[in-house]
Fold:
Amino acid sequence: MTLLAAPAARGRLAHHLVNLRQPDLVASVQRRLQKDGLVVVDGLTTPRAVASFADRFMRRSRVDEPHGLHEIRPTGRHHLRADSVDLTRAPMRLHTAGARLKHPPRLLLVVCARPADTGGDTLLVDGQDLLSELARRRPGDLGPLTRRTTMRTAPRIYAPVFRLSPAGRCVLRLPSGRGVSWSPAARRRLLNLEVAVERTRRRLSLAPGQGYLLDNWRWAHGRLTFAGERLLYRAEGDPTFRMPAGFPTWVEAT
Structure:
Protein backbone atom coordinates (compact mmCIF):
# COMPACT_ATOMS: atom_id res chain seq x y z
CA MET A 1 0.00 0.00 0.00
CA THR A 2 1.28 3.46 -0.91
CA LEU A 3 -0.44 6.22 0.98
CA LEU A 4 2.12 8.93 0.61
CA ALA A 5 2.69 10.70 -2.67
CA ALA A 6 5.72 12.73 -1.67
CA PRO A 7 8.82 10.64 -0.79
CA ALA A 8 10.06 13.36 1.56
CA ALA A 9 6.84 13.10 3.55
CA ARG A 10 6.64 9.31 3.61
CA GLY A 11 8.66 8.85 6.78
CA ARG A 12 6.83 11.67 8.51
CA LEU A 13 3.34 10.21 8.01
CA ALA A 14 3.91 6.46 7.76
CA HIS A 15 4.12 6.02 11.55
CA HIS A 16 0.52 7.31 11.84
CA LEU A 17 -0.83 4.24 9.97
CA VAL A 18 -2.87 1.81 12.09
CA ASN A 19 -3.92 -1.77 11.44
CA LEU A 20 -7.70 -2.01 11.71
CA ARG A 21 -7.44 -5.69 12.69
CA GLN A 22 -5.17 -5.23 15.69
CA PRO A 23 -6.82 -6.40 18.93
CA ASP A 24 -6.25 -3.11 20.79
CA LEU A 25 -7.44 -0.91 17.91
CA VAL A 26 -9.61 1.48 19.93
CA ALA A 27 -7.02 2.06 22.64
CA SER A 28 -4.23 2.42 20.07
CA VAL A 29 -6.15 5.02 18.02
CA GLN A 30 -7.05 6.95 21.15
CA ARG A 31 -3.40 7.05 22.28
CA ARG A 32 -2.23 8.27 18.88
CA LEU A 33 -4.86 10.98 18.72
CA GLN A 34 -3.96 12.13 22.22
CA LYS A 35 -0.23 12.20 21.40
CA ASP A 36 0.09 13.09 17.70
CA GLY A 37 -3.43 14.12 16.69
CA LEU A 38 -3.46 11.99 13.51
CA VAL A 39 -4.25 8.43 12.48
CA VAL A 40 -4.04 7.09 8.90
CA VAL A 41 -6.31 4.12 8.09
CA ASP A 42 -6.81 1.57 5.33
CA GLY A 43 -9.64 -0.92 4.78
CA LEU A 44 -12.78 1.21 5.28
CA THR A 45 -14.32 0.09 2.00
CA THR A 46 -18.03 0.79 2.60
CA PRO A 47 -20.02 3.73 4.01
CA ARG A 48 -21.23 1.47 6.82
CA ALA A 49 -17.63 0.64 7.75
CA VAL A 50 -16.72 4.35 7.75
CA ALA A 51 -19.68 5.19 9.98
CA SER A 52 -18.94 2.31 12.35
CA PHE A 53 -15.30 3.36 12.67
CA ALA A 54 -16.28 6.97 13.34
CA ASP A 55 -18.75 5.92 16.05
CA ARG A 56 -15.97 4.21 17.99
CA PHE A 57 -14.27 7.53 18.61
CA MET A 58 -16.72 10.41 18.26
CA ARG A 59 -20.22 11.64 18.85
CA ARG A 60 -20.96 12.58 15.28
CA SER A 61 -22.63 15.78 14.19
CA ARG A 62 -26.03 14.98 12.73
CA VAL A 63 -26.09 14.76 8.92
CA ASP A 64 -29.18 13.96 6.83
CA GLU A 65 -27.30 11.82 4.32
CA PRO A 66 -26.92 8.02 4.02
CA HIS A 67 -25.21 6.54 7.12
CA GLY A 68 -24.97 10.04 8.55
CA LEU A 69 -21.89 10.87 6.47
CA HIS A 70 -21.11 13.89 4.35
CA GLU A 71 -20.52 12.91 0.71
CA ILE A 72 -17.74 15.09 -0.71
CA ARG A 73 -17.99 15.09 -4.50
CA PRO A 74 -18.14 17.61 -7.35
CA THR A 75 -21.81 18.32 -7.90
CA GLY A 76 -21.60 20.68 -10.87
CA ARG A 77 -24.07 22.93 -9.03
CA HIS A 78 -21.76 24.62 -6.53
CA HIS A 79 -19.40 27.51 -7.07
CA LEU A 80 -16.22 28.67 -5.39
CA ARG A 81 -17.77 30.05 -2.23
CA ALA A 82 -15.97 29.40 1.03
CA ASP A 83 -18.79 27.11 2.20
CA SER A 84 -18.96 24.94 -0.91
CA VAL A 85 -15.51 24.69 -2.51
CA ASP A 86 -15.32 21.09 -1.24
CA LEU A 87 -18.16 20.25 -3.68
CA THR A 88 -16.14 21.42 -6.68
CA ARG A 89 -12.93 20.21 -8.35
CA ALA A 90 -11.01 23.31 -7.33
CA PRO A 91 -8.10 23.24 -4.89
CA MET A 92 -9.04 23.66 -1.25
CA ARG A 93 -6.89 25.85 0.97
CA LEU A 94 -5.45 24.28 4.08
CA HIS A 95 -7.86 24.98 6.93
CA THR A 96 -9.32 23.58 10.11
CA ALA A 97 -12.93 22.41 9.83
CA GLY A 98 -15.54 24.76 11.24
CA ALA A 99 -13.06 27.58 11.78
CA ARG A 100 -15.92 30.09 11.53
CA LEU A 101 -17.89 28.41 14.32
CA LYS A 102 -17.74 29.30 17.98
CA HIS A 103 -16.99 25.65 18.82
CA PRO A 104 -15.31 23.81 15.90
CA PRO A 105 -15.54 20.00 15.94
CA ARG A 106 -12.63 18.28 17.64
CA LEU A 107 -12.35 15.18 15.42
CA LEU A 108 -12.57 14.81 11.65
CA LEU A 109 -12.61 11.55 9.67
CA VAL A 110 -12.18 11.59 5.88
CA VAL A 111 -12.15 8.38 3.80
CA CYS A 112 -11.73 7.92 0.05
CA ALA A 113 -14.46 5.93 -1.72
CA ARG A 114 -13.40 6.78 -5.28
CA PRO A 115 -10.15 8.60 -6.14
CA ALA A 116 -9.82 11.29 -8.78
CA ASP A 117 -8.65 10.44 -12.28
CA THR A 118 -5.77 12.85 -11.75
CA GLY A 119 -4.79 15.14 -8.87
CA GLY A 120 -6.80 15.59 -5.69
CA ASP A 121 -4.05 14.68 -3.23
CA THR A 122 -4.78 15.60 0.37
CA LEU A 123 -2.62 18.25 2.05
CA LEU A 124 -2.02 18.22 5.80
CA VAL A 125 -0.31 20.61 8.19
CA ASP A 126 0.50 19.87 11.82
CA GLY A 127 -0.24 22.97 13.90
CA GLN A 128 2.76 22.19 16.07
CA ASP A 129 5.04 22.30 13.01
CA LEU A 130 3.38 25.51 11.83
CA LEU A 131 3.79 27.24 15.18
CA SER A 132 7.41 26.12 15.39
CA GLU A 133 8.15 27.31 11.85
CA LEU A 134 6.84 30.80 12.60
CA ALA A 135 8.65 30.92 15.93
CA ARG A 136 11.96 30.14 14.21
CA ARG A 137 11.61 32.30 11.13
CA ARG A 138 9.09 35.02 12.00
CA PRO A 139 8.87 35.30 15.79
CA GLY A 140 7.50 38.83 15.53
CA ASP A 141 4.41 37.48 13.77
CA LEU A 142 3.30 35.35 16.70
CA GLY A 143 1.94 38.23 18.77
CA PRO A 144 -0.63 39.42 16.18
CA LEU A 145 -1.64 35.82 15.40
CA THR A 146 -2.21 34.80 19.03
CA ARG A 147 -4.42 37.67 20.18
CA ARG A 148 -8.10 37.10 20.92
CA THR A 149 -9.00 39.72 18.32
CA THR A 150 -6.78 38.30 15.54
CA MET A 151 -9.80 37.50 13.36
CA ARG A 152 -13.58 37.81 13.36
CA THR A 153 -15.45 34.95 11.71
CA ALA A 154 -18.98 36.07 12.65
CA PRO A 155 -20.45 39.22 14.22
CA ARG A 156 -19.70 38.04 17.74
CA ILE A 157 -17.00 35.42 17.22
CA TYR A 158 -13.37 36.51 17.65
CA ALA A 159 -10.45 34.12 17.78
CA PRO A 160 -6.68 33.85 17.29
CA VAL A 161 -5.01 31.57 14.76
CA PHE A 162 -3.02 30.08 17.64
CA ARG A 163 -4.84 30.05 20.99
CA LEU A 164 -2.15 29.65 23.65
CA SER A 165 -2.94 28.59 27.20
CA PRO A 166 -1.00 29.29 30.40
CA ALA A 167 -0.42 25.52 30.60
CA GLY A 168 1.77 25.70 27.48
CA ARG A 169 -0.70 24.19 25.04
CA CYS A 170 -2.15 25.51 21.80
CA VAL A 171 -5.29 25.22 19.65
CA LEU A 172 -5.07 25.93 15.91
CA ARG A 173 -7.88 27.73 14.09
CA LEU A 174 -7.06 28.24 10.42
CA PRO A 175 -9.89 29.57 8.22
CA SER A 176 -10.09 28.84 4.52
CA GLY A 177 -9.56 32.51 3.71
CA ARG A 178 -12.96 33.92 2.78
CA GLY A 179 -15.55 35.58 4.98
CA VAL A 180 -13.02 36.44 7.69
CA SER A 181 -12.18 39.91 9.00
CA TRP A 182 -8.58 40.23 10.17
CA SER A 183 -7.11 42.76 12.56
CA PRO A 184 -4.77 45.22 10.78
CA ALA A 185 -1.73 43.72 12.53
CA ALA A 186 -2.70 40.16 11.61
CA ARG A 187 -3.50 41.11 8.00
CA ARG A 188 0.11 42.23 7.55
CA ARG A 189 1.28 38.76 8.64
CA LEU A 190 -0.96 36.66 6.38
CA LEU A 191 1.62 36.29 3.62
CA ASN A 192 4.19 35.02 6.11
CA LEU A 193 1.58 32.64 7.52
CA GLU A 194 0.91 31.28 4.01
CA VAL A 195 4.65 30.77 3.46
CA ALA A 196 4.91 28.87 6.74
CA VAL A 197 1.93 26.70 5.74
CA GLU A 198 3.63 25.85 2.43
CA ARG A 199 6.88 24.99 4.21
CA THR A 200 5.24 22.60 6.65
CA ARG A 201 2.53 20.95 4.55
CA ARG A 202 2.53 17.20 3.92
CA ARG A 203 0.96 15.39 1.00
CA LEU A 204 -1.20 12.28 1.18
CA SER A 205 -2.53 10.26 -1.77
CA LEU A 206 -5.58 8.17 -0.90
CA ALA A 207 -6.80 5.00 -2.63
CA PRO A 208 -10.28 3.53 -2.05
CA GLY A 209 -10.77 2.58 1.59
CA GLN A 210 -7.94 4.79 2.82
CA GLY A 211 -8.36 7.89 4.94
CA TYR A 212 -7.35 9.86 7.99
CA LEU A 213 -8.76 10.68 11.40
CA LEU A 214 -7.36 13.89 12.85
CA ASP A 215 -7.54 16.26 15.78
CA ASN A 216 -9.13 19.30 14.15
CA TRP A 217 -7.75 21.54 16.89
CA ARG A 218 -4.23 20.60 15.78
CA TRP A 219 -4.20 19.57 12.10
CA ALA A 220 -5.31 21.57 9.06
CA HIS A 221 -6.29 19.81 5.85
CA GLY A 222 -6.87 20.75 2.21
CA ARG A 223 -6.47 19.31 -1.27
CA LEU A 224 -5.06 19.87 -4.73
CA THR A 225 -7.24 20.44 -7.79
CA PHE A 226 -8.40 17.29 -9.57
CA ALA A 227 -10.19 15.81 -12.57
CA GLY A 228 -12.82 13.06 -12.46
CA GLU A 229 -15.59 11.97 -10.12
CA ARG A 230 -13.73 11.82 -6.81
CA LEU A 231 -15.86 10.76 -3.82
CA LEU A 232 -14.97 11.03 -0.14
CA TYR A 233 -16.95 10.32 3.02
CA ARG A 234 -16.54 12.70 5.97
CA ALA A 235 -17.62 12.50 9.59
CA GLU A 236 -16.96 15.05 12.31
CA GLY A 237 -17.80 15.44 15.96
CA ASP A 238 -16.49 15.45 19.50
CA PRO A 239 -14.44 12.61 21.01
CA THR A 240 -16.00 9.96 23.22
CA PHE A 241 -12.74 9.80 25.21
CA ARG A 242 -10.54 12.30 26.99
CA MET A 243 -8.40 14.56 24.79
CA PRO A 244 -5.82 17.09 26.03
CA ALA A 245 -6.76 20.76 25.80
CA GLY A 246 -4.71 21.42 22.67
CA PHE A 247 -1.25 20.31 21.58
CA PRO A 248 2.11 21.08 23.26
CA THR A 249 3.69 24.30 22.04
CA TRP A 250 6.96 24.23 20.12
CA VAL A 251 8.89 25.14 23.28
CA GLU A 252 7.48 22.18 25.17
CA ALA A 253 7.87 19.83 22.20
CA THR A 254 11.59 20.51 21.52
About this structure: The chain has a mean pLDDT of 90.
